[in-house]
Amino acid sequence: MKQYVADFGLLIVGILWGLGFVFVKIGLNTGINPFYLSALRFLVGGILFYLVFLKKMKKFRKKDIVAGLVVGIFQFFGYAFQTYGAMLTTASKNAFFTSINVIIVPYIFWILHKRKPKAMTFICSVICVIGIGVISFDKNLNLSDINFGDILTIISAIFFAFQIATTGFFSRKVEPLKLIFLQMIFAGILFVINFFIFSNPGEISDLKGMALISVGYLTIFSTIVPTLLQTVCQKFTTSTRASLLMSTESLFAPMFAFFLLGEVLSLKVIIGAGIVLFSIVLSEI
């Protein structure tokens, strides 16, 4: 595969993930329970992923299961906080704040691999915090422009950073395809358990209309297809280019949110988001 083809494939991943933020919001707007939505997304997605790679899914070892469980737990908490955050904030801000996981990952690698991040990483972290501050503080330096949904999303970014870091850690020890499958299944199971603990089982209902479209998109086009594209395309380009191309989800999410949800960003949020995205791009160069 040519590098430009692989790069285009990874750009598609960014587009699909960006649109995924909108479909999460669309699904939640129909009244579907967040745990129910995520459980369907990962369990159905995991089963479909298993069927696609059936020949490579034999003989799961103990270390495969342990790795899948660890990463799956971080994936569960990441998506749980992100999805509940999406209920209380806009799809655009949900995407912007989720993207800061890129800045957090090097620090987790520092803990796991005892390798101190480069000086540029610290600089990018400061720039990122400044961007979040521009979005969050008003002219009197009060946190009036950040809501509880934004805070939940920032917490989700921390868990996503741990998911990314532990995935990188375990992918050297187990087969990546098995790791992807197991983390999806474990995350899905955790969503089912939490649904029955914290929600009313009566909220389980037949999916129809926009709820069905939302779950269908998130399962196939925001989970299965991006995972397949990432798995195939990342081998034919550099890790830096791959990270940058996939991080475009934060650019596409507000565009789709504007056209499909009618979300309009204030100038202050646009400037702050621009600073955050600049820090992310700078950290990958």
From TrEMBL:
Transmembrane region(s)? 7-28, 34-53, 65-82, 94-112, 119-137, 149-170, 177-198, 210-229, 250-282
Q: Which UniProt keywords apply?
A: Cell membrane, Membrane, Transmembrane, Transmembrane helix
The family database entries (InterPro entries) matched by this protein are listed as: Diverse_Substrate_Transporter (IPR051258), EamA_dom (IPR000620), EmrE-like (IPR037185)
- Superkingdom per UniProt: Bacteria
Indicate how the chain sits in the lipid bilayer: Multi-pass membrane protein
Where is it localised? Answer: Cell membrane
- List the SUPFAM superfamilies hit by this protein, alphabetically: Multidrug resistance efflux transporter EmrE
Q: Please provide, in alphabetical order, the Gene Ontology terms of the cellular component aspect for this entry.
A: plasma membrane
**Which part of the chain is the EamA domain?**
7-136, 148-282
Instruction: Kindly provide the name given to this protein in its UniProt entry.
Output: DMT family transporter
Q: Specify the species.
A: Leptotrichia rugosa
